[in-house]
Amino acid sequence: MAPKIVLLPEEKMVLEIILQGGSNGKRKTETLREMRRRTKEVTKSSLENVLDKLKNEKLIKEVTAQTARNDKVLMGFDFKPSKELTGSAWYSDGVLDLDFVHQLFDIVAEYLSSASRYCTEKTILDVLQQSGVLPADIRDNVGDEEVAQLMNAMRLDGVVTVKEQDEGRFYSLVVDAQQHGGRELASLLETPCYHCPVRMRCSMLQVEDVCPQRCEYFNGLLAGANR
Amino acid sequence: MLYTTRLLERIVSDRLGKSAADIIVSLLNNPGSNTEDLSRNTGLAYNVIRQLMLRLMQHGMIVFDDPRYIVVTPNIYFHLFVPNVMNRLNSDRDDAINELERMRWSELNRISSRVFQMILDKGRMTVADVLEELRKLEGTVPDLESLSMDLERLTQQAFANLSTKGFIVRAETVDKGLFRIYKSKKETLGRKSTAPTKRVAVNLAEMDETEEGETSTTRIDPTVLFTVATDSLMRCMKLDIITSMVADLFFAGPQYRDLSPSLVRAILEAPGQSLTLDGLCDSLFGKTVMELQSTVDTTGSRKSEAEKTKDMSDLQKLRQMIKFMINWADFSVIQTEHGSALHEGTQLTINMADLWEHARGRAFDQFIRLGYGREAVRVWRFVREKKQTELKQMADACLLPAKEVSARAHALMNDGLMKMQSVPRTTDHAPGRSLYIYSIDEELALECLLERAAESMLHLLVRVESEMARLRELTVEGSADIAAAKKSVAAIHRASTRVSLALFMLDVTEPKV
């Protein structure tokens, strides 16, 4: 029989505060603030000791949150972290695997380019699962919601277009997915002035050393003509 | 709007002189000024102001808001009409003039484009004025020599054709009586003018209207003033952008590639940008809907199987394309009176306003992609959709790490394209406990980009001037570097032409005749 864990009143208070966070957990700073509200005799180092003991006794655990910055989030050992905390299935340990996401984009884009009709989220989910690219640990966690998130990101990228109907959302590949068109404003980026590091000092009156008449950044534009 | 002001000043100064530019700047800083105000602000004499104002009004760069201008009132307030100034950059573009030459007018091409250019330069001209100018050029310009016998007739026809196609319109003359100055307040109050107004009355309703599509053989009154219909000129420039966008968006497949730009162009070139299905088929295939569906060809003989199949396939493809464009998710690219029912007489109209807005949005997105990265486009589009959002939501929706999103958002903020507002949660305003809300004000973003575009354009114009001066010096010296200097001038000139297109895309106002 496992020995019963005996907790001091202070430790019980900390455990209670952390368990109140549920599957969203509680940050260390929030826990400290709450402790100080209840009892004035707590310090950061004493809290650290309490937390270490609770972790060793497997009563709490630390979870890396998606946007927690340097704060770890504490929660009950048996609690499953919520999706808001850890992010969707595309996040591991609170970190988004960008290469993996781009790989998924490529698979979906390839499928949509060969499909002659609009596709639903379920179809795309089947394609991803059959592709074998989803690791075993997240395969069960990937559902319609995750696929919708992926497709939304592709829509924001301008790669797919979506039609919302009563039956659901239907996706297809944008014809100009390479986005060759719409470059009318790109000429602003070709001139040196847009990203010029000394733009604020530029004067057309030639009183400053920086002026369009003698600007060396224009030399690139001129050099292209004389090649 | 420092650079936009300077650019406008520069455009007017290059074309109409420094004094005209001073008037423009005064009107920009003090909109709704009368002649006394302008004289005081610019330090120019009244008669100089009067002459310059007449010239600026000839070009439509200045408007006034008194609808009863035939009655001389003491204070008529003038306003600058910025689009007609900015569009002077665009009206020098070759593609606008080439558009005219593309039309099938045989020997009228040369005369028509020359007449158009003259009216563009002078603002308003009559047939008599243009004929006089052409006769002066006869001895010097080779393409006019061969037409000298028929110059008057050809000029008349050029005017009639340009007018029919909507490139020039009849203009009202500028009332010189607008610029009377009053010596004392007593004279100005409630008194009608006793001096006769020197104004040529143009009663447009009495003039014969030319029927659409027909070359007018009626002699045009040589005293009637014409001016360039700037919206037609701008339509030429929008045409290429819109047709290539429609082709990219909808019809990149090889079976549609040739048809889709022709479809859009055919409707856009029609008067009122509206055409029946029959007219469209005639324009694209040379046959009406009935002829395409018929088993007999236009000569009366039976069509071969291949011809019948091709005609039916063309018609079906066209109907599919039109239905797709009518039912497109974002907006109806083509509008009809009766939904998506397509009969021979169904009037098809291009939804120019929404298409142009879409083209501008697409250009903006591409600009963000090229200037700030692919990830920045996701962030930009998401914030634009949501109006207001915070970092975590952006990271979730765009599937990007929060650090990446923050970096892109701050890059956009630095250039005035995005805004951020901090909402403190605690009284100490601690950054760690504040909420940061990101938003996009599209008008402000457009203004910022317009200002940057004006800055780039201004610097390019200054550099062109400097390179031209260098070229002149080298030419005088007989230096060996002339060829390189010429190439430099051409390169900078090309860059300025491309930036003028960017300015044209960013302009949200419609030009006025």
From TrEMBL, chain A:
Q: Which Gene3D superfamilies match?
A: Winged helix-like DNA-binding domain superfamily/Winged helix DNA-binding domain
Q: Which UniProt keywords apply?
A: Nucleus, Transcription
GO biological-process terms attached to the record? transcription by RNA polymerase III
Subcellular localization is given as: Nucleus
Is the keyword Transport in the record? Answer: no
Q: Name one GO cellular component term.
A: RNA polymerase III complex
Question: Member of which family?
Answer: Belongs to the eukaryotic RPC34/RPC39 RNA polymerase subunit family.
Q: What is this protein called?
A: RNA polymerase Rpc34
Classification from the root reads: Eukaryota, Metamonada, Carpediemonas-like organisms, Carpediemonas
From TrEMBL, chain B:
Q: Where is the RNA polymerase III subunit RPC82-related helix-turn-helix domain?
A: 7-64
Task: Kindly list the places in or outside the cell where this protein is found, as annotated in its UniProt entry.
Answer: Nucleus
Listed A to Z, the keywords are: DNA-directed RNA polymerase, Nucleus, Transcription
Entry keyword Transcription: yes
Gene Ontology molecular function, alphabetical: single-stranded DNA binding
Q: Which InterPro entries match?
A: POLR3C_WHD (IPR055207), RNA_pol_III_RPC82-rel_HTH (IPR013197), RPC3 (IPR039748), WH-like_DNA-bd_sf (IPR036388), WH_DNA-bd_sf (IPR036390)
- Annotated ranges, domain DNA-directed RNA polymerase III subunit RPC3 winged-helix: 366-440
Entry-linked Pfam families:
HTH_9, WHD_POLR3C
- Predominant cellular place of this UniProt entry's protein: nucleus
- Identify the GO cellular component terms for this protein: RNA polymerase III complex
Q: Quote the function comment for this protein.
A: DNA-dependent RNA polymerase catalyzes the transcription of DNA into RNA using the four ribonucleoside triphosphates as substrates. Specific core component of RNA polymerase III which synthesizes small RNAs, such as 5S rRNA and tRNAs.
Family per record: Belongs to the RNA polymerase beta chain family. Belongs to the eukaryotic RPC3/POLR3C RNA polymerase subunit family.
Q: Which PANTHER family match?
A: DNA-DIRECTED RNA POLYMERASE III SUBUNIT RPC3, RNA POLYMERASE III DNA DIRECTED -RELATED
* Oligomer status and interactors: Component of the RNA polymerase III (Pol III) complex consisting of 17 subunits.
This one is known as DNA-directed RNA polymerase III subunit RPC3
* Gene source species: Carpediemonas membranifera
